């Protein structure tokens, strides 16, 4: 399922109305910095007892290699898989393992079905920008109104905004800003889910 909307403005965190935003965006130019920030934030939220879903990425450097090995971890189930193929330093083109993404898609779909407190996706990349990759499960998460924290490169930002079609909060690339928005979004999401049940009891 794909959404097609006009571009929506990205709201600086300090000016955003926290009641309007379901999506926190970490816009970046350096993917390694993005992965480190989002992983650190996720670890802190898990340690605080929140139920997290989605994926975070780690990048392991090997001696004598220019490119690092890339791994992603399922925040809900705890499994970790390698997503980079070892094609040598001189290889050109995509070096991601296509088979790994079927598992990632299943991890995220499970997190959506189980309604985690916050869904974290480390990257909205070229595949998603072109209507493929994790785009389908991201749409499911937004329809389910699960708060979403996502990394988006500046190159893919316009495509992401076209996809979400609603206000999003642009987060400064520092751990305190990202963690503060995440905790706020989790609390708002919990309140939103509780309100219908409260109304039915009162009725």
Short note summarizing the structure:
This protein is of the alpha/beta class and about 200 residues long. It contains six helices and eight strands; from the N terminus they run E-E-H-E-E-E-H-E-H-H-E-H-E-H.
Helices and strands, with pairings:
Elements lengths: L9 E3 L10 E6 L2 H17 L4 E9 L8 E6 L5 E3 L15 H16 L4 E7 L1 H4 L5 H9 L4 E6 L3 H8 L3 E3 L4 H28 L1
Helix pairs in contact: 1-6, 2-4
Task: Provide a descriptive summary of the structure in words.
The chain is of the alpha/beta class. It has six helices and eight strands. The chain is globular and about 50 Å long. It starts with 9 loop residues before the first strand and ends with a helix. The model is unreliable at 1-19 and 197-203 (pLDDT under 50).
Order of helices and strands: EEHEEEHEHHEHEH
- Beta-strand portion reads 15-25%
The helix content is: 40-55%
Which strand order do you get reading across the main beta sheet?
Answer: 1-8-2-7-6-3-4-5
N-end to C-end Cα span: 36 Å
How many helices? 6
Overall pLDDT confidence:
79
Our Rg estimate from Cα atoms comes to: 17 Å
Shape: globular
User: Can you summarize the main beta sheet?
Assistant: 8 strands, mixed
Q: What ranges have pLDDT less than 50 throughout 5 or more consecutive residues?
A: 1-19, 197-203
Structural class, please? alpha/beta
Report the count of strand segments.
8
